[in-house]
Amino acid sequence: MSDLPANVTAVPDRHGKIRYRFRRKGWKSAYLKGDPGSVEFHRSYADILAGGGAEAESAETVHPIAARSVDDLIMRWKKSVVWKKKGARTQYKQARILERFADRLDSKRRRYGARPTKDVTVAWLDNVFGNMAATPAAANELRKILGGLMDHAIRLQWRTDNPARLTEKYEEGEGFHDVTDAEIAQYRAKHALGTTARLTLELALNTAGRRCNLAIIERDHIKGGRIYVDHAKGNNDASVLMLATTKAAIDAMPAAPFRFLITTQFGKPFSVAGLGNRARKWFDEAGLPHCSLHGLRKALSRQLAETGATDAEGKAVTGHKKDSTFAYYRARADRTRLADRAMSNLGPLAVVQPSESEGSSDA
């Protein structure tokens, strides 16, 4: 499976069951728990990266970890309380980004990870981020993670300032396209009830789930006409009423004793990356190459705001942690309603066609 994490391969055991094994030079081999895309799987992988690297990866086999270097800081951060409070998926994602950052080479072929923490300057980081101008979102993500890393350097009293937070952030624009109601109708016209493509759309529009949530929705998560979702970011869970459109999509699917709702043709759950790739194909088939699963999350946020949902009500559905995030959608909806009210006030003043007598006088 090409979308498995680095150094993880799928191997059959002696009973023919597929298991997922972590193998890396200088590290102890280990089997991951759970299925790809599940919280258990990501937590298992994050635990290996956090706990196995410093002990199993010796100085002789890979590279030395100098005292108070960036490598040393990363290792200590992964053992901190702050790091352990992060969700399993967040740990996995940030660990990968930090690994790639530490392994980059400067103009003198020196690893970034070998750089003394005290020598990490605003100018140096500005140059690092400047080389990422083609991928502003990735640059901002790295900037955010390094901000947390340098905060830990301050806690360790290795520094008194945080150079990452003094760098400039890239403007990213609007991000993922907000799928419109017309585009949703176009997708439904292409993918009929009874297809996995249609079921995925309806679940996304019902739950505001990210692809990592949609990939692991189980039948047991539907109880009493409600769908329970454990949103990946912020560890916010949500319980939402199941819409009629979602019920129709579920009822139209062939009866099968599968644990997960969204599955491959073999009845297996998609990996997170696999579901994203398949959704890309479904949108393309519907003539919507600019749309995405995350765009459906934005669409539901917009629809909630347009129907008058408060920030608290919207967050209860979407799992957004910050008021400002959902407030963005509500503000856009409020502007539309205010504009409609303002234009309606012009109605009595509108003159379609003046009569011939208007503007003339009898002399």
Q: How is the topology of this model organized?
A:
Elements: E1 8-12, E2 18-22, E3 30-31, H1 39-56, H2 70-77, H3 81-84, H4 88-102, H5 122-130, H6 136-155, H7 181-190, H8 196-207, H9 211-214, E4 222-223, E5 226-230, E6 237-241, H10 244-252, H11 272-285, H12 293-306, H13 311-318, H14 323-344
Antiparallel strand pairs: 1-2, 2-3, 4-5, 5-6
Helix pairs in contact: 1-4, 8-10, 8-12, 12-14, 13-14
Q: What percentage of the residues does DSSP assign to strands (E)?
A: 5-15%
Report the order of strands and helices. EEEHHHHHHHHHEEEHHHHH
The rough form would be described as globular
Helix fraction, binned, reads 40-55%
Sketch the major β-sheet. Answer: 3 strands, antiparallel
Give a description of the structure.
The protein is mostly helical and 363 residues long. The chain has two domains: 8-166, no CATH class; 181-343, Orthogonal Bundle (hpI Integrase, Chain A), CATH 1.10.443. It is built from 14 helices and six strands. It has a three-stranded antiparallel beta sheet with strand order 1-2-3, with no helix packed on it. β4 (222-223) and β5 form a beta hairpin. It is globular. Mean pLDDT is 85; it is low at 54-61.
Q: What's the gist of this structure?
A:
By secondary structure, the protein is mainly alpha-helical.
What attributes does this structure have?
single chain; about 375 residues; mainly alpha; 2 domains; three-stranded antiparallel β-sheet; 6 strands; globular
